[in-house]
Write a structure and sequence with these properties.
28% of the residues lie in helices and 17% in strands. By secondary structure, the chain is an alpha/beta fold.
Amino acid sequence: MRHRDADSLAPAVAERLLRSLVEVQRDKDVVHLCLTGGRIANRMYAEFADRVPASDLDPTRLHLWWGDERFLETGDPDRNALQALAVLARTLHLESSQTHSMPASTGKADPGDSAFAYAEELGDTRFDICLLGMGWDGHVASIFPDHPSFDSTKALAIGVTDAPKPPSERISLTFNALNRSDQVWVLVSGADKARAVARALDGDPTVPGSHVHGRDVTLWFLDEEAAAGLPRYQCSL
């Protein structure tokens, strides 16, 4: 789905996400939403938070998870969870038991051990909606091309070391966890992502972004710059 720019993409996705969560809550007691990090996601979370008070969303029945995280200390402002919650907490009041942040480096041995602990917490949970971004190189979550994080695995979460994007240590869900989501939404903004978007939507197997999909729905939300390499009819899946 193509939008003019990031300024129009963020509110449009926020509005659709809110409507979709309310709709899912009509049929389910508990809704599981997986969040992503990044600039466009954080802009969308701000728009989402602004809309919550006037909506029918029931925060007591919403659980938040994360697709990946920077393996940093608990209070580090670069952690995806801290950035998202700082915005969402303005209007979305959740109990700590409903926010499933990935472990911080504080008191943890390494990303691998922390990933194992997160996989144990996740268990059989299936996300109703999973949000993802994609980098200029086609990476999703912290699964990078030409990197061990892209290797096949049966695990639900992995520790990532020597990542090509700082910080070098991260935790990431794998395709095993991401692709069992009912819906996967990929948010991409910026001209530097256009080549990776085109390759992913063309099914290039060397691009991690080409491997993500929802069980029922897969949506790509793009601004005009990110969609520059696509024919008009290929903007959504």
